[in-house]
Amino acid sequence: xxxxxxxxxxxxxxxxxxxxxxxxxxxxxxxxxxxxxxxxxxxxxxxxxxxxxxxxxxxxxxxxxxxxxxxxxxxxxxxxxxxxxxxxxxxxxxxxxxxxxxxxxxxxxxxxxxxxxxxxxxxxxxxxxxxxxxxxxxxxxxxxxxxxxxxxxxxxxxxxxxxxxxxxxxxxxxxxxxxxxxxxxxxxxxxxxxxxxxxxxxxxxxxxxxxxxxxxxxxxxxxxxxxxxxxxxxxxxxxxxxxxxxxxxxxxxxxxxxxxxxxxxxxxxxxxxxxxxxxxxxxxxxxxxxxxxxxxxxxxxxxxxxxxxxxxxxxxxxxxxxxxxxxxxxxxxxxxxxxxxxxxxxxxxxxxxxxxxxxxxxxxxxxxxxxxxxxxxxxxxxxxxxxxxxxxxxxxxxxxxxxxxxxxxxxxxxxxxxxxxxxxxxxxxxxxxxxxxxxxxxxxxxxxxxxxxxxxxxxxxxxxxxxxxxx
RNA sequence: GGUCUCAUCGUCUAACGGUUAGGACACCAGGUUCUCAUCCUGGAAAUCCGGGUUCGAUUCCCGGUGAGAUCACCA
Length: 471
Description:
The chain has helices spanning 18-33, 54-65, 80-92, 103-115, 183-193, 209-219, 250-255, 260-268, 283-289, 304-317, 320-326, 340-350, 360-364, 376-379, 389-404, 410-424, 428-440, 448-455, 457-470; strands at residues 5-8, 37-42, 74-75, 96-98, 143-145, 152-156, 160-164, 173-175, 198-202, 225-229, 232-233, 300-301. By secondary structure, it is mostly helical. It folds into 3 domains: 79-229, Rossmann fold, CATH 3.40.50; 250-362, Orthogonal Bundle (Glutamyl-tRNA Synthetase, domain 2), CATH 1.10.1160; 370-470, Arc Repressor Mutant, subunit A (Orthogonal Bundle). A 3-stranded parallel beta sheet has the order 1-2-3, with helices on one face. Helix 16 (410-424) packs across helix 18 (448-455). The longest helix is centred in the first third of the chain and has 16 residues, at 18-33. The chain is elongated. The model has no long low-confidence stretch (mean pLDDT 93). The protein binds one RNA strand through helix 4, strand 7, helix 5, strand 12 and helix 10.
């Protein structure tokens, strides 16, 4: 049994998008591949930014993807006494002190530094400690770390060996004046108390890691293994991610009929590969093969077309029973009274052309309902538009005559269609197009004999008759 | 602006100094007795720029340029 433990620590400020999911996914993969644990911790120490319902939304998103967490969900807002205890320890050892300035005063220091073209460091304004005894702090002011400026060298599993100078070390706020800890402080306490071994997070925290290393020292806590994930980039060069860059709610993908395994395949191979030319991976394969040190250091762009392709590829790998189960919410309204075996035959026909399940109604509606005759299907057809209506009528009548004799088995249909080609001296592109249009009234449909067979004799013949009546 | 990081086809990436710079998505063309799709075959498409080191740089070094991150009582 491994002692590896990773965490996903989102703040409850809205829905989860692909970037957040990818961070969670990589943490989950690291835990699973070594038989370790993955935990979920809600970083809800900023009450002003909290969005109602986002915790449930985050949990639902992870569950949809199968990224189950191994312990109860932790909430930082319920652990304030723990942070207080560690803060007191720092204060008593002289490593934390009350910030005597108002936010306005601090802002003025910052602006003065800017006017002087000097980098702003709070520690240059650090107040004198009181004589004797630990610094006093009544909780009405922020509590700051008394930093110990120095350079650091450390290893990041993704970014490699990193270095920083003492100029990035400063006194930062541990406890805000509202009594809540800052992320910078409490995540370190939590990771330690929860025995997290690998801290895997987005690159927005990379620049803060030296500050964290300084705090780890002040707390006498051994730092965990660090791994910093590059961001998913926008197609528009920079700025915020737009929806087409993947900034939409991850559950929208569920609702459009994307498979969790396709999303996982897509996100894992966005900025990572196993060194071979394999593109399509099952989830358990990824767990086995994933290697955090092979993650690309630079940000990657979200390409929804690749996701679409992968989703189609995963759909094609599903067994019929699996597909039938997963596709259940996506049938067109007209299919609601159709029986299971009929729907399964329809699925068999459309499986290879389905890219996401929301396409199902458009692709299958004509199997369940007679669509109105659409004359444009013929008038815009590149071959049929040149035919006289009388000839089209003649062809359909000949077809009807033959199909009336058919038992509508796939074999018999195929044989009869072949004979009709000879009999009418038409090319497949003309005759088969005509029959397909007459029986489906759809711009696209599965192959002809399969469609006719599934549709059945009654519907097929009556639709041909309807088309005939239209000429 | 300071600090840190990164840089191969449009996109995701492979190539532990020697390859006709490989694969995949997307795109284009052809094939699979109709359409759309699948599948197969083929095509176009890249080492940011400039110096070094080396017999030889995509690869190592330096300098540009570009991109990203960060400099909060947000996480």
